[in-house]
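Appendix C reproduces, verbatim, an entry submitted by the partner laboratory led by Prof. M.T., so that reviewers can inspect both the input and the predicted structure.
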Amino acid sequence: MLARSGVALALAVVLSGCVPGTYFDPNDPYATGLRLFDSGEPANAIQYWKPLAEEGDCDAQYRYGTLFYLGEGVPRDYDSAREWWAKAAHQGQYRAQMILGTVYGRMSLTTGGFPRSLTVDCRGGCGVPRDPQQAYEWLRLAHASLPPEAEAARQQVSLEITALQAELTPDQRADAERHISAWTPSQNRCVPRDL
């Protein structure tokens, strides 16, 4: 009898969509923002992400920066996008690190999947001069932080790293390796949500 009531309770929780730590968690403002963004309401997503980003939530900082890049719900502003992505990247948010590598390398990168695929195309510039060393550093950090299930992203980043590495002088590469070895995440170490 006890097992049957436990199964019924678990089923009720799942069916109600209120499983904590998931995309459907009604008590997680970040997840609420994702659902709004995915349903085409970026201006409403900002109401949830901006306060979290200002409080130091690395995922909200990444998403908030993305809104500035896209010009969704806010005016398009590459400087603001880069600023928010950098805050997230310095905490170890691998998506933000990949994007910064793309920005500084003046490359194009598509991340995510349905319904939230994002293409950042900076081949024409995204407000900063091309800096292969900085791009290499960010992509190396991202590569080390990618979750095991992100094999396609790992392969894509590996190709970009190899291409950038070929552009660096021996001194630039040595300097980049020193920066990578010395890098530590900021005080608010990020554990990215995979929602």
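Confidence is low (pLDDT under 50) at residues 8-13. Additional entries are available on request from the coordinating office.
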